[in-house]
Amino acid sequence: MFNRLSIALSHFAARLPVGPVAYLWLFGFWLVTLCFLSASSPPLESRQEIPHLDKVLHFGYFFLGGAIFAAHCGLRWPETSRRRLLLLVVLVCSVIGRLDEYHQGFVPGRSGNDTGDWLADTVGGFSGALFVIWFLLPIMLDGKDGKRVESS
Predict the structure, then answer these.
(1) Fewer beta carbons under 10 A from the terminal one: N or C of the chain?
(2) Is residue 79 included in any domain, yes or no?
(3) CA-angle at 94, arms to 91 and 99, nearest 5°
(4) Which helix (H) or strand (E) holds 98?
(5) Number of Cβ atoms within 10 Å of the Cβ of 56
């Protein structure tokens, strides 16, 4: 089973762009989308249908953002250690998550400054970065001048 998963992951990673600029554009699009999502009020009928659904959505959205930013940083600075890349991405996702929560406090119908949402943002960014840095980035860097991310 792990062999099939490894093959599928390698196949997926081989099709991803290896230029850091593509991921920078994607991250910019992710940020702009986050601003629009945070500025809108959710419809009244969709609130609290599923308990803690907002935490799952925060986690998922920041998983994607952390993964995109980790791919950019890892391809931009391939000689940087995995730990430093992870720390950078988690720090950036956490700050963006905190600013997002602050911004939501001014939007009518939104509850801002929610520590649970901020934690979900940070953990989502951490998880997305972890996935990219430890699994996808080494495969992506194999095709780019044979550079590998350090294991420390």
Answers:
(1) N
(2) yes
(3) 125
(4) helix 82-104
(5) 12
31 within domain boundaries: no
The candidate with the shortest Cα–Cα distance to 127, out of 64, 82, 75, is 64
Chain-centre distance for alpha carbon 62: 4
Which pLDDT does position 18 carry in this prediction?
A: 82
Mean pLDDT of all residues belonging to the chain: 87
Structure tokens at 39: 């500025």
**Secondary structure (3-state) at 110:** coil
What is the tally of structural domains in the chain? 1
What are 35's two structure tokens?
Answer: 């601003």
Domain that holds residue 130: 53-152
- H helix or E strand, kind and range, residue 119: helix 115-131
Distance between CA atoms of residues 93 and 96, nearest Å: 5
Query: Is 147 inside a domain boundary?
Result: yes
Q: How confident is the model at residue 108 (pLDDT cuts 50, 70, 90)?
A: confident
- In this structure, which amino acid lies at residue 103? H
